[in-house]
Design a protein that fits this description.
about 290 residues, 5-stranded mixed β-sheet, 2 domains, alpha+beta, Fumarylacetoacetate hydrolase, domain 2, 20 strands
């Protein structure tokens, strides 16, 4: 199944998408008045009622917003989770967390990105010119948790995954370097474009998804999720060892090689630049820098 959130008649509402049409969840299930995170939380009880009826809304006429907005906590992110990107980041001079000899980490690197960062497809990414002069892009597959759990084993991990979406982990590289830890450089307002849809886990093979990113139609990133250093079950096992994962939690799994700081000289984003992220089986997320 594919879900999204749209602005319909001045209100953000979740929809089911099928065959280029969309059905308001509230029309399919009149008693349901929640958002997409609530639908995910109640999915086992509601999925039997999610059957399209009659004519839907044409997808190409919809105004998509970020599919998940009211999150239980910050977006959970993974750093340096592709070998080639770990190398380009460590060698870029911007990675103040690494030793001179370190490339790929021995254990997953975890950090969070504040919820104020979330914006939707086609929304403008703020330039924050008074705070940063070095804005970068990071195309990422994001895991959406559907079932709560703590101390989840790798073998059981996928039972807790609802589905997947796309995020662009926009980063202020100068702040990331200056402040050592990454929270501030990752968490400026509007620095997490997300969407356009959430695809349920049964629709795609998370171990073999092509992920690409273009800046102004120049292909910058082109990789596959089979190249992840730490796969999704490992990330879930690591996180849940002492933190209960909740329905609606988002785990951004890391970005591949080809970010702006990987070039010499670096290619930072400028006002008016268009960034397009595409993941096989999920869709394409497009945003511009203000």
């Amino acid at each position: 199944m594919k879900f999204a959130t749209i602005n319909h008649q001045g209100k953000n509402q979740p929809v089911l998408i099928q065959d280029e049409q969309a059905w308001l969840i509230q029309e399919l299930i009149p008693a349901f008045t929640g958002d997409l995170p609530q639908l995910i939380s109640d999915f086992d009880q509601l999925k039997g009622q999610l059957t399209p009826k009659g004519q839907g809304l044409p997808v190409d006429e919809l105004e998509f917003v970020a599919p998940l907005q009211r999150l239980p906590r910050n977006i959970i992110c993974v750093g340096k989770n592709y070998h080639a990107h770990a190398r380009e980041f460590s060698e870029s001079g911007f990675d103040s967390s690494a030793t001179s000899s370190e490339h790929s980490p021995d254990f997953p690197i975890m950090f969070t990105k504040a919820v104020n960062t979330i914006i939707g497809p086609n929304a403008t990414i703020p330039a924050h010119e008074q705070a940063t002069q070095q804005i970068d892009y990071e195309a990422e597959l994001a895991v959406v948790i559907g079932k709560a759990g703590r101390a989840i084993s790798k073998e059981q991990a996928m039972d807790h995954v609802f589905g997947y979406t796309i995020v662009n982990d926009i980063t202020a590289r100068d702040l990331q370097k200056k402040h050592k830890q990454w929270f501030l450089g990752k968490s400026l307002d509007g620095f997490c474009p997300m969407g356009p849809i959430v695809v349920t886990a049964d629709e795609v093979d998370h171990q073999d998804l092509r992920i690409q990113c273009w800046v102004n139609d120049e292909l910058r990133q082109d990789a596959n999720t089979k190249d992840l250093i730490f796969d999704i079950p490992t990330l879930i096992e690591t996180l849940s060892a002492g933190i209960e994962l909740l329905p609606g939690d988002i785990i951004a799994t890391g970005t591949p090689e080809g970010v702006g700081i990987g070039f010499n000289p670096p290619k930072f984003l400028r006002s008016g630049d268009e960034v397009k992220v595409s993941i096989q089986g999920i869709g394409t997320l497009v945003n511009r820098i203000a």
